[in-house]
Amino acid sequence: MVGILIISHGNLGNSLIHCAHHIIGKKLDQLVGLGITIHDDPDTILPKALELLKEIDSGDGVLILSDICGATPCNIANELVDPGKVECLSGVNLSMLVRALTYRNESLGLLVEKALSGGKEGVMHIYARSSNAKRN
């Protein structure tokens, strides 16, 4: 099973994990979050991130999900990428995470594709059902 590490600003990753637990309805192994605050030094966070990678990698690889490309959490994640073993996607959202969890028994390469498509397909414009909809 592919491990999943969410590296994000503040509590975003842990909040996404909590929501995923709620949606999927069971304990989710090999899934952890690492929150980065404005007070954290990336040089001290990197060893912690490496340790988390070791904990959740059962030999099938790890997918790192990060929030904003170019920001500190993603820059830390970038340092961990090892193509074919540790991959990273930025722009994490709940749709991306749930899709990744659904396909994590597949290869890391397929999981990356599925998670990316889940993240993109989960973003859409919701139209009103009718122009007569009541607003309170």
Query: How many H/I helices?
Result: 5
Tell me the helix content: 40-55%
What is the rounded distance between the termini?
A: 47 Å
Class of secondary structure makeup: alpha/beta
Order of SSEs: EHEHEHEHH
| Largest sheet strand order | 2-1-3-4
Low-confidence stretches: none
- Overall pLDDT level: 94
Beta percentage is 15-25%
Number of strands: 4
Defining key terms:
globular, alpha/beta, 4 strands, 17% strand, 136 residues, 44% helix
Task: Summarize the model shown.
With 136 residues, the chain is α/β, with parallel strands linked by helices.
Task: Please tell me about this protein's structure.
The chain is α/β, with parallel strands linked by helices and 136 residues long. Helices cover 44% and strands 17% of the residues. It has five helices and four strands; from the N terminus they run βαβαβαβαα. A four-stranded parallel beta sheet has the order 2-1-3-4, with helices on both faces. Helix 1 links the parallel strand 1 and strand 2. Helix 2 crosses helix 3 and helix 4 runs antiparallel to helix 5. It is globular.
Break the fold down into its secondary structure elements and pairings:
Blueprint: E1 3-9, H1 12-24, E2 31-36, H2 42-56, E3 62-66, H3 72-80, E4 86-90, H4 94-102, H5 108-121
Parallel strand pairs: 1-2, 1-3, 3-4
Helix pairs in contact: 2-3, 4-5
